[in-house]
Design goal:
It is a single chain. By secondary structure, the chain is of the alpha/beta class. The chain has one domain: Alpha/Beta hydrolase fold, catalytic domain (Rossmann fold, 3-Layer(aba) Sandwich), CATH 3.40.50. Helices cover about 30% and strands about 25% of the residues. The strands form 2 sheets. It has an 8-stranded mixed β-sheet with strand order 1-2-4-3-5-6-10-11, sandwiched between helices. It has a 3-stranded antiparallel β-sheet with strand order 7-9-8. Helix 2 packs across helix 3. The longest helix has 16 residues.
Length: about 300
């Protein structure tokens, strides 16, 4: 598999500027662009398998959302919220120089895409042509919030790659069946090597403070956020595909069904034997994305 190119774009925050990293596959002059954005504690290399499949047909852009991977950490951790991420993506699209993109967003990446797609220019146009939401919607189950909150930002150190892979699998089994090779490929970019008085090891490749805004959400704020997300969703008109792990603890079947009846009236595909969230590594999942993007 070819390696992607790494580049950076500057974006504005309350303390000045930060750099957001992005991984690029395919020809730079290809006007067909698909942006793939990861979940809360992940990074852009999650999409290597999918990007490799799409790159002959698309320019594929896989950002490391700020605070993750090769991107900068924010000076103010309360900036780790969807409005910041959407603003960063506006800066990214300006750098890419294309009027519209297709969007593949897993979990948090789907909410970023929803926010971006709901923005309109003066002529009423959107920067998102087609939107794929991977196991996420305007309503998020409280039990998933509690589960994720129990591990996000917790300091963990691993002696070996295999130890890290085993731990990450213990909190990510909802991703569905993977071979050991597939899981190690998803694990390696999640880690950064460290060497200190404890010796050599690995830690997670994200700012532990990304969990602070997440944990600060009250029931009142959650309700207001949900109402706003439904409002944004109802404003969408672009073709929308909703993937749901049939065992997802984050996106309920009832919410997914509601999303097929309102707003863009998403097409829903539920994936048996998978929870939150499908990794888009399995052949059948890649095929669903390719079909949605108009590829054989």
């Amino acid at each position: 598999m070819h390696e992607p190119r790494l580049d950076f774009v500057h974006a504005l925050d309350t303390a000045g500027l930060h750099r957001m990293a992005y991984w690029e596959w395919g020809e730079r002059d290809n006007p067909r662009v698909v942006v793939c954005v990861h979940g809360l504690t992940r990074q852009g290399r999650d999409f290597d398998t999918l990007a490799h499949s799409l790159a002959p047909h698309f320019r594929v852009i896989c950002p490391d959302v700020v605070g993750r991977g090769r991107s900068d950490w924010l000076a103010d951790p309360m900036g780790y919220q969807i409005p910041t991420y959407v603003a960063d993506m506006v800066a990214l699209l300006a750098r890419l120089g294309v009027p519209q993109v297709d969007w593949v967003g897993t979990s948090m990446g789907g909410l970023i895409g929803l926010g971006l797609a709901s923005l309109r220019d003066r002529d009423g146009g959107s920067m998102v042509r087609r939107l794929l939401l991977n196991d996420v919607g305007p309503s998020i189950r409280a039990e998933a919030i509690q589960r994720i909150g129990a591990y996000v930002g917790q300091p963990k150190r691993y002696a070996t790659l295999d130890e890290a892979a085993d731990y990450l699998w213990s909190i990510s089994s909802g991703f569905g069946p993977h071979s050991r090779e597939q899981w190690l490929a998803l694990t390696r970019p999640q880690l950064v090597a460290v060497r200190d008085e404890q010796g050599e090891g690995f830690v997670s490749h994200y700012d532990p403070r990304i969990g602070l805004p997440f944990k600060a959400v009250t029931s009142e704020l959650a309700a207001a956020g949900e109402a706003l997300l439904w409002q944004r969703y109802d404003s969408l008109a672009c073709p929308t595909l909703l993937l749901r792990g049939a065992d997802s603890d984050l996106l309920s079947h009832e919410t997914a069904q509601a999303m097929t009846q309102r707003g863009p009236k998403a097409r829903l595909v539920e994936l048996p034997g998978i929870g939150h969230a499908p990794t888009l590594v399995a052949d059948e999942q890649v095929a669903l994305v390719r079909e949605f993007l108009g590829l054989p």
